[in-house]
Amino acid sequence: MVDIRVEGIGHSYSNDSDWALRPFHFTFKSGVKYALLGPSGCGKTTLLNILSGLLSPSTGKIFIGDADVTHKNCRHRNIAQVFQFPVVYESMTVKQNLIFPIRRTFRKLARDRQRVDEVIKVLELEPFLNLQSKSLSGFQKQLVSLGRALVRSDVNGILLDEPLTMVDPQRKQDVRRKIVASQEKFPQTMILVTHDQKEAMSFADEVIVLNQGVVLQSGSPHEIYNSPQDPFVAQFVGSPGMNILNGDIEQGNKVLLSDSKDIWSLSNSKAGSDCYLGIRPHHIKLGHHPDGFTIRNRVDDVELGSHGKAIRIASHGIQLLVPYDEPINQGDSIDVTLPFEKITIFSKKVQYSNL
Ligand code: ATP
């Protein structure tokens, strides 16, 4: 098993000033699960297609181990791909589909037959083995597609391009669990493309966040959530994401929030004079507390979410989460406090992609 390394890889579909993917360096370490996370149009598929060899990059090089494969086509990269739509031979049984990828290369090796049996076990495909593939449901077909990638012991990585898109919501978790279980059994490099931050965070060892063709940050789910390096990452990850307060006039250690008349004194000198303030919704406290900034304002919206009530204070662009039984309604006037120690400070000197 070898690393996949990109050096200055970038792509423009038209001309060099209009990057679908801005040049960047990265090493996908062997046996690690990655998620490429970002909104529609951020460049995830472009990067995946460059890695698989379906797309030739405008600039940069790709190495698999020490071999420069930049100009090699898909067949010479030995990378398996699972797409949004399952790819199975409908006229074959499930078992025939699973054996097919290894028959051409390793016909005589008992070891690979054994691997097929293990794949069947980990994906729990035994009950369907002798069924014609065309009779399977969409999620079963997607498991077979995944199985077809996993049976090949020689691949350098498996690319998963939004493989859960066509799977029913009730089945998604089951398929995700099986993908993770299969990676534990066969520790191959996996690169999952998704715009669903929950999916990325629950699947990956390392998440790579993109926006507008820029790789903004990579790190463990814990790092991405707790130490975002960019306001976009902070807002995109979390349900709901981090609140970003746009302070645009500074006087010494005072920050005037642009969307209100509040002037806050920042005791934390590292803030300097140019900053954005970020805070997670569940860190905002109800009521006045001396250890933070207090805002008194009108509740514009109350929404029941999976983790409690989401309260929106539009005048400050703030959302907070409170327990379901908190008696707060739209139109109420409430005090909320943003504790100093929970505030993330983003310097305005950094050029953030979305600001
Ligand atoms: P999605 O989640 O919607 O698939 P994505 O993050 O995978 O989006 P890409 O498909 O890589 O994003 O697209 C990145 C940018 O490149 C977008 O602005 C898109 O419109 C543009 N783009 C993608 N494919 C082509 C193409 N074949 N020709 C021209 N522009 C393209």
Automatic annotation (TrEMBL):
InterPro entries: AAA+_ATPase (IPR003593), ABC_transporter-like_ATP-bd (IPR003439), ABC_transpr_MalK/UgpC-like (IPR047641), Mo/tungstate-bd_C_term_dom (IPR008995), NA-bd_OB-fold (IPR012340), OB_MalK-like (IPR040582), P-loop_NTPase (IPR027417). Keywords: ATP-binding, Nucleotide-binding, Transport. Residues 4-237 form the ABC transporter domain. GO terms for molecular function: ATP binding; ATP hydrolysis activity. It comes from the Bacteria. GO terms for cellular component: ATP-binding cassette (ABC) transporter complex, substrate-binding subunit-containing. The keyword Transport applies. It holds the Pfam family ABC_tran. This is Carbohydrate ABC transporter ATP-binding protein, CUT1 family. It comes from Pseudobacteriovorax antillogorgiicola.
